Amino acid sequence: MKNSISVLFAVSLFLACKNEPKKDTDPISTKGPKYETYNYAGFTKEEMYAYHKHIFEGGDWTEYGDLERYFYLNFSQIKEHSRIKRSDTPKILKETPRDDVKNFITSTDLKKGGGLSLNDYVQQVEVNGLIIIHKGNIVFEGYPRMFPTDLHVNFLITQVYVSTSIAILEDRGLIDTSKPIDFYFDSLKGSGWEGVPIVDILSMSSGIAHVPLETYEVSFDPIKDLATAKSAKPSGTEYQFSNADAMVLTLLVEKISGITFNDFVEQEIWEKIGAEYSALLGKNKNGTSLSYVDGMSSTLRDLGRFGLAFTPSGRKGPNPIISDAHLSKIQNVNQNLKIESRSLKETFYSNYQWGAVFEDGDFYKGAHGGQGLYISPSKDLVIAYFGTSNTNRERNQLNLIARQLSKSGLFDLNKTR
Q1: What is the pLDDT of residues 225-275, one digit of tens each?
Q2: Which domain holds residue 306?
Q3: Does the pTM exceed 0.70?
Q4: Number of folded domains that form the chain
Q5: Which CATH number characterizes residue 91's domain?
Q6: Which ranges carry the Beta-lactamase-related domain (predicted)?
Q7: CB 253 within 8 A of CB 163
Q8: How far apart are CA 135 and CA 320, in angstroms?
Q9: Can you spell out the DSSP letters for 312-330?
Q10: Are 382 and 307 in contact (CB under 8 A)?
Q11: Does some domain include residue 72?
Q12: Phi then psi dihedrals of residue 346, to 5 deg
């Protein structure tokens, strides 16, 4: 009986609290937006009660479908986190919807939904939201399974905030990415990390053997635990995704800046991109930022604002957060890290924690469940989206569609409309 009362009390407490970021954040304008909402109604009280009971009793959040979507959209109620405060001067995003983008026909060879218009594809069950920003203006925006003000888990997209933080410190002469990581961490000497240049860690080619995530999620001394990692192959010779790479880079940001990763992102990125809403950042029991797994939760527009920082429209002004040097380094890839994509039928590379840097200079980062951020500096284009795998564990294919859109000619800067 006592346990039942505890469960009911905990669930009631969860339901009594509104989504945390909505407490102190207000929309920029009361003017009605032009985005598509597709009549999304959210979760019922019964569904929320059932999910919190499921988690409280030790259930796994990776259930796929609607239960997993609930986790993505309600991270503040379920996991430990810190807050990244919104900007004092939010960046206004002008809305200029384009029918030619809305009616763009997707490739017919997609696993599901091929041949549909973009607007119809977005209504597939695997899509939560999509935003397309061209020349600084929103040209398409749809929210089939979330609200525009919802904070949605970014997962591994957060790793690009880590690499951006490294690049900011690099631009200031505080980090030399050609040096080995043990130059900055004496405790990594004699470990698998010894002699591994930071630039190879940034390109996800550290050569470090797989380390279970659970080690870091409960760690009270992450750098000590990282020192136990072994080398599996020479660094810089082969792309090998590893969350440990993002973890050690996060700790490097904190060591060199003297502040937490949460505070660094808030001061050097979130404030400067003009984020409209506060974001969340997962943390472990010791307060260490989980930048490499659950990562950040943000609105879709704020993820788009971050993407804008890499485009000509977002880099106007005397001190852009993404320097010419940083952009050049992203695109100056290690030719050893070539990846032949069967789905895209082209070659791409990994660099600065971006999962795909294409030969035309576009780059992309994807994440668990169907999240993604695609940037084309040459076309002044940002495509950001959130999704959830369906109950058959199938993701959306907006990564392929984003690439198709970029190459479609719709966004060529020398093309008049």
Answers
A1: 888 889 999 999 999 988 889 999 999 999 999 999 999 999 999 999 999
A2: 83-163+256-407
A3: yes
A4: 1
A5: 3.40.710.10
A6: 130-399
A7: no
A8: 16
A9: TTTT-SSS-SS-HHHHHHH
A10: yes
A11: no
A12: -155, 175
